[in-house]
Amino acid sequence: MRWRLWLGERRLRIASGLVIFVYVTSHFLNHAAGNISIAAMEVAVHWQTSFWQSPPATAVLYAAVLVHPGLGLWAFYARRHHGWTAGEIWQLALGLTIPPLIMSHIVGTRLSQTMFETWNGYGQVLARLWVLDPAHGVQQTVVLAIAWVHGCIGLYYWLRLQRWFAAVGPVLLGLAVAVPLLALLGFYRGSVEIQGLFADPAWRAENWVEGEIGTAAQGAVLYQVWLGLLAGYFGLIGLVLAARGVRTWREQRFAGVTVRYPGGRRVRVPLGYSVLEASRVGRIAHASVCGGRGRCSTCRVQVVAGEDGIASASAAEAAVLERIGAGVGVRLACQIRPRLNVTVVPLVPAQGAAAGRATGARRVARGPEERFIVVMVVDMRNSTAMAENRMPFDTVFIVDRFVDAIGRAIRDAGGRANQFTGDGVFALFGIEAGAAEACRQALAAVAGIGRNVEAMNAALSDPLGAAPGVPVRFGIGVHGGMAVVGEIGFEASRIFTALGDPANVASRLEKLSKTWAAEAVVSEAVWQAGGFGEDGRRETAEMAGRQGRLEVRVIARAAGLERDRN
Ligand code: FES
Q: Which of 279, 299, 369, 482 is the best mutation target for the ligand 1 pocket, counting ligand atoms within 8 Å of the beta carbon and taking the most?
């Protein structure tokens, strides 16, 4: 039930944020018309207001304007745990800054129009902002920039894991820069034009009149309304802060629980905290690779005492526990929120990468983080026979050339060959790129490996002859999906790698390439996203631990692969 509520809240936040973002974008485009003239801005604002002031659009916009900041305040109250990322803090802080900065503008335009039927068009607003009160003009410029950055961060977090994001990401980035730049430039040019217009008595006689800008008395009423709204908003923030403080005090005073750890350590936390949060509060190193999202199992603990105070596992937690074959009393520390005192024993040593980002333990250079990654497994065929029939130095020479050919193709395609196991290579694509680009890179690497190995075979055929192992044959397996990427290993032997389904499936596909006498087997999802046309034949393959069969593309000759030109 909890995750369903969370999902609903998240969707509401995205939907309301999108409505506001569309409104802000239309406002920016309106500003951009200032690059032509204030008259052009007036025409644009006419179209903009005729849409946004229509009853349905007004209802949707007002609902979004109430819901989105409301959810921000709620998040400010509800978020308890101590693992806020810098991005989350910035996003919330920027979002909470916008309402007080934008209020005076809304009161002076929309509310004034509604209450007193005034009309504050671009000419009047620009005169107010840039002639009478330039500091206010600067403030509005700042709030526009803040609102835009806040919206772009939100969109990025929402869209970044979409398959198509890598393809359209550069276009979106261009728009994210171009739209506000054009708007600010238009705003600036409008401010220059209004200086001249405002100095003209004829313009003022027509536009700076009480029927347009309102009377002094009306201005005084609006000022009081603005003060009231401002006080109300800061009052709400104060209430949230007070509510957080009261909750923490009550929970610690009346309803805390104690979590005991091996070695006699104990941490007292408010009711509602998870065991992992208790570890963080007590600065007890506790593995948590997924950051407490219930997706990695590294935080698992043996509950030694106090099981009665822990609710039974949710479906999601039960699925993870079943997958790792957890014994009786083993639970995920990030998912259990004891109502009574408990004693637990963390089961995964918290060292290096496994300690995760939020325990305060040593952070690794990169990750661990869960992200989309494409994994490639390459293996040399008949290497055992070659080793048996060739001089050891010849074998080392050939394997070295083979690994070099593979490594170059992977590097040139944009991937990283990060593990060499004798005559096998494990490579990752998408460490620095989005999903679609990762798929393209992996397929380009398959083609590159084919070409490099064929060139190598041609070069070796003369000096080494057609003895076992030459020409060199190989098999490749490629699959992509969500995996935890980060460093694992010991001291200087740490490697950056990916753990999860993509690695297991890629390894299985590499083995299938041998069964099907092919040079590569690529999962269909990677194939489609990579845009390599209709080469190869389609098959389905059974995968251990998966329901249904996996669609794959079987490539007989890797060197023949070509990008789809359509
Ligand atoms: S931290 Fe990953 S499952 Fe608990």
A: 299
